[in-house]
Amino acid sequence: MSLVYKLLSPSCIKKYFNINKKNNLYFCPKCYESANYDFVQFAILLMKIRRNKCPECKGTVFDEMGQCLTCCSIIE
Fold it and tell me: How would you label 17-45 residue by residue, b for 16+ Cβ within 10 Å and e otherwise?
């Protein structure tokens, strides 16, 4: 998916996957859990998020459980 995403134009990505290529991509732990780890580099975020500053990286997007979707660290 990463290679397809890089190669296709924004209009093709929108047409075939209904994803706006201009949006940021974040790691989705739920998708990663059920995927083939050798091929997953990112997952399109389609879950509820919360904003906070990550102490480990410059990320600001967290899932409901407190996991940073940029570096995967977990905050309390």
Answer: eeeeeeeeebbbbeeeeeeeeeebeebbb
| 16-60 residue pLDDT tens | 888 888 877 777 776 767 666 555 555 565 677 888 899 998 889
Does residue 23 come out as left (phi exceeding 0), alpha (psi in the -120 to 50 range) or beta? beta
Q: What distance in Å separates the CA atoms of residue 9 and residue 5, rounded to the nearest whole number?
A: 8
pTM of the model: 0.53
Q: Give the ranges where the chain is alpha helix by DSSP (H).
A: 2-7, 10-17, 29-33
Pairwise CA distance, residues 73 & 7, whole Å: 30
Structure tokens belonging to residue 34:
């059920």
